[in-house]
């Protein structure tokens, strides 16, 4: 195994992992505290990406575009919560799955209507598009490092909020026993709205980071959404710590698996079989991880819910 | 089955039976082509209703069995075996085994974990389909329709249509019999209170896995039919949005009524087909954005349409005697 390649792929895996964490963090909070399965969380990733691309185009500055898009995504999240999701908290999961599925259709089509069906490509500013060579012989894109940095910063911020503020205390209390928090006189409606907006903003941020890496197009958040669900199941629903550990685990496993699994299999199987089985197995590694974790720990690695 | 339910089923089946002659009369051959698809997905919806409506199992990966059934036909056809008498039993066996394996693992979990783990397994098989370069990978592959030794000719639209019709009637009847058998009663018991059923001595896990497998097999046959109908197989059959669509059909029609699943499949596909035209009538050029209306419509059905089309129909029927 090539050490430089391994290092490079570890960084790629880390970058993918923190991206997953940005999406999973909001999802696990909404799921854990409000008991809401929100399939439309991926749409917020997409909306964040579109808003950032648009604002960047208007202001000619990636940074200002980003700073404008964050509150805008927050607003979209709040509006969605008030108009649709608020009525769904009391419904069973099946209803939530279907209604938010409807939301996905609406958002995808809405985006197509406003921005057109063609993918948007946004260029990075020069200070982000370069490479640094801190692994000898393997220049690494600056932007990916920035993503890792932002992801870790968000994780730290969330940790500080959850562990050291009053809001965080309520979030923790809500995740472990929802009714009790309400019974103790907390304005649950406002708490839910805030948490949802927070989650939406993080999802949007993930989209904003993803935009320059790939392309901005309708439905871009959906593949990530399903992975984010897998991640929060692995981590334990409602647990930020679980989401963080599981995201990094899943990101690293997926990225490194894709690169090294075919080679690894070649040591057991003949070349032809390894070439077919390798990519197939690499694609499903994350799902295998989830099945494995659920068999050993049916409620995930760090279960937040009490009883 | 109440008499009303029976009558709705009868009217619906009669309607399906009359589509080809009516289509011929009004020179709309597209109609029977379209309704064959409705009936095929109707089988899938009925099979999901069997476990969702009566077993309380919210499978978010039901389209996987469509895919397994379709690939069974497709892979055999790819290797030159076009004989339907081999293809269909293989489709049954493959989808049954897939459902048995997935069910055996998923049914250990419950609630939202069940929803997510069935989705995860569906994603696994979806990606497996994509990685099968031999069978077209991402793009899928074109296939020949099954041959039944001259007994049934699937290339003849009429014969294909009535084969699907026959299977739909058979499976709906079968599902009805299952639901009202002792087995079905136990299944419904596990939906209401699994612990209690276990406490009075039923091996609930085995019952649920069995029901899950039966539903998988039915859906697998629908998949084999769908592959024939499209003359095409691709991983898209197993895409998670398709699992969502089958779920929506069941909800739209009314959970736990079987007939409702058929109503739901019909309603869903009719909407999908004609909503764009309707919107174009209202405002020219908006037809291509039909999902802008379809999404909120779905939300409204979930929020206010308790019992779905089936409940709507029964209320109407009761009011009009």
**Residue runs with pLDDT of under 50 for 5 or more positions of chain A:** none
CATH topology call of chain B: ABC transporter involved in vitamin B12 uptake, BtuC
Distance between the termini of chain A: 46 Å
The level 1 CATH classification of chain B is Mainly Alpha
> How is the main sheet of chain B built?
2 strands, antiparallel
The biggest sheet of chain A amounts to: 2 strands, antiparallel
Share of β-strand residues of chain A: under 5%
Structural class of chain B: mainly alpha
Question: Strand order of the main beta sheet of chain B, please?
Answer: 1-2
Largest two-chain interface: A-B, 42 and 42 residues
Give the helix level of chain B as a range of percent.
over 70%
Strand order of the largest sheet of chain A: 1-2
Shape descriptor of chain B reads globular
Low-confidence stretches of chain B: none
Overall shape of chain A: it is globular
Q: So what's the oligomer here? A: heterodimer
> What number is the mean pLDDT of chain A?
84
Q: Write the H/E string of chain A, N to C.
A: HHHHHEEHHHHHHH
Rg of chain B:
20 Å
First-residue to last-residue Cα separation of chain B: 18 Å
């Amino acid at each position: 195994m090539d050490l430089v390649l391994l290092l490079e792929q570890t960084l790629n895996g880390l970058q993918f992992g923190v991206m997953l964490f940005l999406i999973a963090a909001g999802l696990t909070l909404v799921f854990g505290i409000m008991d809401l399965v929100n399939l439309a969380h991926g749409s917020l990733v997409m909306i964040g990406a579109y808003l950032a691309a648009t604002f960047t185009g208007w202001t000619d500055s990636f940074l200002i575009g980003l700073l404008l898009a964050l509150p805008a995504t927050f607003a979209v999240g709040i509006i969605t919560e008030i108009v649709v999701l608020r009525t769904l908290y009391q419904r069973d999961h099946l209803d939530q799955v279907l209604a938010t599925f409807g939301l996905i259709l609406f958002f995808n089509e809405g985006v197509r209507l406003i921005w057109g069906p063609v993918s948007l490509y946004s260029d990075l500013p020069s200070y982000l598009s370069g490479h640094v060579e801190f692994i000898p012989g393997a220049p690494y894109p600056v932007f990916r490092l920035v993503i890792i940095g932002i992801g870790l910063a968000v994780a730290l911020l969330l940790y500080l909020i959850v562990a050291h503020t009053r809001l965080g205390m309520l979030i923790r209390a809500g995740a472990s026993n929802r009714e009790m928090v309400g019974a103790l006189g907390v304005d649950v409606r406002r708490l839910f709205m805030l948490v949802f907006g927070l989650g939406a903003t993080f999802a949007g941020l993930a989209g904003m980071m993803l935009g320059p890496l790939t392309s901005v197009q309708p439905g871009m958040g959906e593949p990530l959404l399903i992975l984010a669900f897998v991640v929060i199941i692995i981590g334990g629903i409602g647990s930020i710590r679980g989401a963080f550990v599981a995201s990094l685990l899943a990101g690293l496993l997926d990225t490194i698996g894709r690169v090294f699994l075919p080679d690894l299999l070649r040591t057991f199987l003949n070349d032809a079989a390894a070439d077919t089985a390798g990519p197939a197995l690499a694609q499903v590694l994350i799902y295998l991880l989830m099945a494995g974790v659920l068999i050993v720990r049916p409620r995930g690695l760090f279960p937040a819910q009490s009883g | 089955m109440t008499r009303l339910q029976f009558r709705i089923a009868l009217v619906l089946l009669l309607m399906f039976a009359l589509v080809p002659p009516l289509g011929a009369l009004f020179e709309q051959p597209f109609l029977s082509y379209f309704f064959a698809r409705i009936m095929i997905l109707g089988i899938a919806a009925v099979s999901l209703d069997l476990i969702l409506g009566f077993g309380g199992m919210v499978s978010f990966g039901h389209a996987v069995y469509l895919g397994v059934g379709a690939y069974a036909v497709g892979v055999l056809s790819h290797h030159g075996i076009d004989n339907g008498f081999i293809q269909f039993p293989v489709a049954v066996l493959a989808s049954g085994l897939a459902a048995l394996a997935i069910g055996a693992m998923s049914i250990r979990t419950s609630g939202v974990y069940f929803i997510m783990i069935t989705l995860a397994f569906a994603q696994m098989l979806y990606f497996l389909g994509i990685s099968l370069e031999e069978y077209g990978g991402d793009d899928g592959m074109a296939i020949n329709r099954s041959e039944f030794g001259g007994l049934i000719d699937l290339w003849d639209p009429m014969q294909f249509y009535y084969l699907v019709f026959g299977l739909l009637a058979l499976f709906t009847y079968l599902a009805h019999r299952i639901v009202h058998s002792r087995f079905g009663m136990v299944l419904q018991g596990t939906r209401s209170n699994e612990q209690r059923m276990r406490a009075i001595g039923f091996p609930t896990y085995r019952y649920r896995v069995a029901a899950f497998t039966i539903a998988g097999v039915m859906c697998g046959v629908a998949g084999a039919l769908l592959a024939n109908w499209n003359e095409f197989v691709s991983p898209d059959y197993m895409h998670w949005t398709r699992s969502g669509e089958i779920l929506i059909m069941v909800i739209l029609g009314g959970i736990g009524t079987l007939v409702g699943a058929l109503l739901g499949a019909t309603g869903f596909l009719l909407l999908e087909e004609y909503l764009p035209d309707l919107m174009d009538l209202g405002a020219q050029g908006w037809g291509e954005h039909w999902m802008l209306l379809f999404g909120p419509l779905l939300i409204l059905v979930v929020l206010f349409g308790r019992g779905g089309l089936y409940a709507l129909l029964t209320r109407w029927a009761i009011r009009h005697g």
